[in-house]
Write a structure and sequence with these properties.
The chain has about 400 residues and is α/β, with parallel strands linked by helices. It folds into two domains: about 5-50 and about 60-145, no CATH class; about 160-405. The chain is built from 19 helices and seven strands. It has a five-stranded mixed beta sheet with strand order 5-4-3-6-7, with helices on both faces. A hairpin with a 2-residue loop joins strand 1 and strand 2. Helix 4 crosses helix 17. The radius of gyration is 30 Å and the shape is elongated. The two termini are about 50 Å apart. The mean pLDDT is about 80.
């Protein structure tokens, strides 16, 4: 609805500086208050069935009965409203409901700041500085705790029947447990479905990994609808190969090339990192297993004197690396591409880095879920190489794709 210029001119009478328009007592705030109170009055009129002062309302058994005062928080500050009442007490406001102390959208502001890694104190200060709204730590905790039900629904949502690729990864966070702050691992499963769409299948917090833990995770994924995983890329997670093959016996367990490279470069100072990364790429992009072994030997001859742990690590994991070399280049690209898992890890670490520690597992799950939700909203299209890779998957795994499809 277009607002008439004449009305705007009337509103701006006496305007001299930005605070007159945007300040705590500025035109915007006063206009919002007036509009809300006008709307509440219209609600009461609809409830009673007649306008204020209309003689037809006499004898109806109900009438207006003054106003009550109520303070409501919003992103533009605290607003004191006059809430109309009826004599019989049957009027229930819709715009500002009974018990409501915050405008719709205010809680979203808090959740958005929390999802970006801001602490409760930082959110408090931010709302005070920008909107002149004082909120308690308890209010912020209650607002963000409302997300926990959404977390439970997300963690238990149905999944696709088949994933050509699932990458399992972990990051370390500090969580208070039984009065002691401990390092706990948060495990993530990032899946690529047949359309090339990235999905975080779930997150699990565990102090120690092991076969029983991974069997529980795999059973959960299976119960949520996953019937087959073609390739599972892992970071040397203890007990994982046995757990996944017990639930998904045909899955190819592959040491994640991204993780291998990331782990290798931890030993390398910045001045050598670019060259070491290039020499590692020559290994995992080799045409055959024999060529990869030859290039690994060349790598060790060149770098063992400075970084002996890298060659040792690749030899130790060689049997889990070489299955990757049997795949066509199109499939290899989607397995070793760093974009998806590295981007996810980077964003999650950014969200948690401001926290000294989390008070409990629930608080960590809440923040990580909100961060994942923000990240996933940007995943709009599959990677460019996915179509070519899926054509190769269809050739190599046609029977399994068809079986699940049916």
């Amino acid at each position: 609805m277009a607002i008439k210029d004449k009305l705007l001119d009337q509103l701006l009478e006496g305007y001299e500086k930005p605070e007159d328009l945007l300040g705590e007592d500025g035109i915007f705030q006063e206009l919002k208050k007036a509009l809300v109170e006008k709307a509440l009055g219209a609600e009461l009129t609809h409830h009673l069935g007649y306008d204020k002062g209309d003689p037809s309302g006499r004898g109806t058994g109900n009438s207006r009965n003054g106003h009550g005062k109520k303070k409501v928080k919003s992103e533009s500050g605290v607003m004191e409203l006059a809430i109309p009442r009826d004599r019989n007490g049957t009027y229930e406001p819709h715009l500002i409901q009974k018990g409501q102390t915050r405008f719709e959208g205010f809680d979203d502001k808090i959740i958005s700041m929390y999802a970006r890694g801001m602490t409760v104190r930082e959110i408090q200060a931010h709302l005070k500085e920008l909107y002149a709204v004082e909120v308690s730590p308890d209010l912020i905790s209650r607002v963000t705790d409302a997300v926990l039900e959404e977390v439970r629904e997300w963690q238990n949502r149905p999944l696709d029947a088949i994933y050509p690729l699932v990458i399992f990864d972990a990051l370390q966070v500090k969580i208070r447990d039984e009065g002691v702050v401990k390092n706990k691992a948060v495990y993530l499963a990032l899946g690529m479905n047949v359309d090339g769409v990235k999905q975080v299948l779930g997150l699990w917090i565990e102090q120690t990994e092991g076969a029983k833990f991974w069997l529980r995770v795999m059973t959960e994924i299976n119960n949520r609808g996953v019937k087959d995983i073609l390739i599972a890329a892992v970071d040397g997670l203890k007990g994982f190969p046995e757990a996944i093959t017990s639930i998904f016996p045909k899955a190819q367990v592959q040491t994640c090339i991204v993780h291998m490279v990331r782990h290798s470069l931890r030993f390398v100072p910045w001045k050598d990192r670019k060259q070491v990364a290039a020499d590692l790429k020559a290994i995992y992009r080799a045409e055959t297993v024999d060529a990869a072994e030859a290039r690994l030997s060349q790598f060790e001859e060149k770098w063992d004197s400075k970084y002996p742990l890298i060659g040792q690590s690749w030899h130790r994991n060689w049997e889990q690396i070489i299955p990757f070399l049997a795949y066509p280049q199109d499939i290899r690209k989607v397995i070793y591409t760093t974009n998806a898992i590295e981007s996810l890890n980077r964003s999650l670490r950014k969200a948690v880095k401001t926290r000294g520690h989390f008070p409990n597992d629930r608080a960590a799950s809440k923040l990580l879920y909100l961060a994942i939700r923000n990240i996933a909203a940007k995943w709009k299209r599959p990677p460019r190489e996915w179509t070519a890779a899926m054509n190769q998957f269809a050739i190599l795994f046609d029977d399994r794709l068809q079986a699940v499809g049916n």
